[in-house]
């Protein structure tokens, strides 16, 4: 399973690689990182045929997570990537907007990795 | 004076107009007065009788003006008899009646069909007759005044009799020996006489003019006027006027030393007296006649006749003088009384004026006081208005301050929300890196245990270091989660509620959250136990509120209460409470309907809240729990939910050592 993590904070890469160390080691999960919405879109365009799960932050400079979500859902329909939003803003507005745009999941920071892993397993099945 | 002739004319008309019935008082009055007028020169006794009858009829019918006319006539006759005093009284009474404006129509002769300006005419007449009395008694100033009054009144109503008043003014000036003035008035009177057809009383004007010329020594003109006077008097049939002119001529001839002519006219005068039948003539008396006679005889040198007439003249003059003196004495005493009365009147007038002045001053004062009161009231109103305005202003200021404060708070809230979110990001790393590190340390420990190249001592060393690492990372994670809880609480605080108000059964809601709290605590601490008491008001209807928020408030309060009783129980157990002093931790919740309000009370029998921290308990981040166990946001958040979210009241009652009650009041 290929996971694209989109966040403007570089430390996110270290954190995810740490928390998914075992899964990466065992080859269960492949991790790709993009540090802006545009970067994520570029990556997705060049890897159209791969099944990719996108984990995106919302609050980012330039294209924010919700815009990215919109683009992804509009531009890529075969196969449609699964998108989960991860944000510090766990308010109702953001949640409803993300749902409305077709996000498959919504997590709040600090990320509960145990829960995330559960969800990923559910998606993988 | 002779205005009565006119009156008679009018009276005659009046009689004709009055339906020819003498039975009516009006007709009887008219005929009586007419008779009185008729006899006033020839038979005074009869005249007086008729006049008295007319007077009583006028009095009976309240015809004040007619009464005055009778009094005027009465005065005239009395004056003729030299009864100046009583005449004066008559005129004064007549004045009172006529001068009263209210009496203007109290006469059978007033009104449209009657005599025009009847009251003024009567008044002018009375003034003239009164002036005659004054002149007869030597009150020249008074006489002049009243002649003038009558003249102006007659002139005003266009009556020719004004010339009579002028004529007599001239006479007064003759009496005063102011011959030039006298001549001016007589010429004026003559001029007026010449303008009218009616020559009545012309003889008197001529006689006065003659007298003036005689006194001035202008004998030719004196003689001419006396002659004109005699002609006129004969034409008028005025005996008294004729006699006066005869007196003038007699004196003239005496002065001219014409014996026969002087005796001739003197005799005529004396004859005139006999035809007067005892009635007096104007301006002359029988004494004068005798005097002229004896002077005439003296001129003629007839000693016997001279002596005879001299004696007669002395006797007559003596008696006339005596009478006059006594009459004058009466008059003077009466006029003195009159003066007193006038003084009294004046005093009364003055008093009235004073009274009026006092009254107007009082009125003025009252007006000023009223004005003052009005001003005072206005002032009071303004002051009140000012107070209201001040109150409104301070209210406004307070509101403004509150607005500024709430604006500050709102922006602070936004700031806090922003900060809280931004803190979430680093916390994300702290918590997750620490958690990841715990895993890594555990792996490291496993690696060390599996490594055969290491001595047991080295392994123990490595393992103990790994354990410390794990412990440290767990501590980092624990405190990171604490920070996370605080931040989440803050977010809830600043975000407010997004819930909707729905009709909710408060009793059920309270009961539910009481149980949730209790079981939550029991789940954490198995040893925890407390008595729960509920006292719900069944009459309570469903009320409009946000159930999640109110539930949260109840949960906070109940949890705090359980915490309080639990703390007390720990202390009691530690102190080994003796028998009879067993502590029973109790938390009770009750609801009560209070008119348009609902009261929810959560009570405990814990230790209560110390007075010194009572005002801090609603402050955010204030907590009495050991660090890490409470965020200090529960009551602060509850307070906001009740007061801001539901317009309710939130209060606390506490007694140290006995417990606390938190009372939430919500409007229905």
Pick out its properties.
heterodimer; A: 125 residues; alpha/beta; Rossmann fold; five-stranded parallel beta sheet; 6 helices; globular; B: 668 residues; alpha+beta; Heat Shock Protein 90; five-stranded mixed beta sheet; two-stranded antiparallel sheet; 71% helix; 7% strand; rod-shaped
Q: Summed up, what is this model?
A:
The complex is a heterodimer of chains A (125) and B (668). Chain A is of the alpha/beta class. In chain A, 45% of the residues lie in helices and 21% in strands.
The shape of chain B, in one word, is rod-shaped
As a percent range, the share of strand residues of chain B is 5-15%
CATH class of the domain at 502-667 in chain B: Alpha Beta
Strand content of chain A: 15-25%
Number of DSSP-assigned strands of chain A: 5
Low-confidence stretches of chain A: none
Poorly predicted regions of chain B are 14-22
Question: Can you put this structure into words, describing what you see?
Answer:
The complex is a heterodimer of chains A (125) and B (668). With 125 residues, chain A is an alpha/beta fold. Chain A has a single domain, classed as Response regulator (Rossmann fold, 3-Layer(aba) Sandwich). In chain A, 45% of the residues lie in helices and 21% in strands. Chain A has helices spanning 11-19, 21-25, 37-46, 65-75, 92-100, 113-124, and strands spanning 2-6, 30-34, 52-57, 82-87, 105-108. Chain A has a 5-stranded parallel sheet, with helices on both faces. In chain A, strand 3 (52-57), helix 4 and strand 4 (82-87) form a beta-alpha-beta unit. In chain A, helix 3 (37-46) packs parallel to helix 4. The termini of chain A are close together. The model of chain A has no long low-confidence stretch (mean pLDDT 87). Chain B is an alpha+beta fold and 668 residues long. Among the domains of chain B are: 1-112; 383-494, no CATH class; 502-667, Histidine kinase-like ATPase, C-terminal domain (Heat Shock Protein 90), CATH 3.30.565.10. Helices cover 71% and strands 7% of the residues of chain B. Chain B contains 19 helices and 7 strands. Chain B has a 5-stranded mixed sheet. In chain B, helix 4 (64-80) packs parallel to helix 6, helix 8 runs parallel beside helix 10 and helix 15 (303-450) packs antiparallel against helix 16 (456-495). The two termini of chain B are 106 Å apart. At the A-B interface, helix 1 of A face helix 15 and helix 16 of B.
